[in-house]
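--- STAGE predict ---
source: upstream dedup step, 1 unique chain passed
mode: sequence only
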Amino acid sequence: MEQADRDKTLGFVGVGVMGRPMARRLLEAGHRLVVHDLNQDAVAELVAEGARAAASAKAVADEASIVFTSMPTVAIFKQVLAGTGSIAEGSAVRIVVDLSTVGSTATQEVAATLAARGIDMIDAPISGGAAGAKAGTLAVMVSGKAEAVDAVMPMFQVFGKPFVVGTEPGQAQLMKLLNNMLSSTAFAVTAEAFVAGVRGGLDPETMMSVFNAGSGRNNATSDKFPKYVLGRGFDFGFPISSVCKDIGLAVDECQKLGVPMWVGGQSRQLWQSAYLQNGASMDMTSLVRFVEQWSGPAPGGRG
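--- STAGE serialize ---
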């Protein structure tokens, strides 16, 4: 492949629940795209829409000057971006844009490995769920060198609304973790309030209307409960295991900064309890069902 073609080609490694719709939006925006994932069905979907498949992460980085990554765990993130046969060993890649949520420590380690090979890393975790990825309404938190960020900004705008929060990889990770900790903690306490209200004889829809008209309004009351809990669908699209990963990273990072995390720590324990009771793969909105179970028989026969 000629260098001019490499410069026009984007790579995407990790086309799962979040990566696939983001990669699809890049295709729809007219970008040339080469993709890799261990899930061949996910790759086949994108190939049918115009992408090209690559045999490995390194093969993607041999063809594309800008490579996006969306990884499920810290260990996989480190291996795919900086391990043996990784993106770091690619011959064409000059900018790696990581969309994962893996914490600032892992991000800084990988960014240093990439920098030693002349590759800039942009730390760009996202918020908005699978629905936001499909609709192009994600919040994209961005940190990295200004020149590299400027080069990728048009792609970020395809995903949603970018927010540049710093110039060093890792700063966007902290921003994302704080956001997710607030969101998951709000959902947890909303679940407790919801179950208490139902057991006390209050109408669920009326409760949400009151919360959303008053000072109790949050993302759980305004979006997740009306869409995914009241109808008992519990299908927001984000598993409890991922909530535990994110809030665990958040609490750890905040404690390293000297913040005691009394509330965040309690929220972490609540989500971990659901995880340990066979909830790992269940949708995060299913936390309501755990709170219902933990509450036991309702006083007076209610609930």
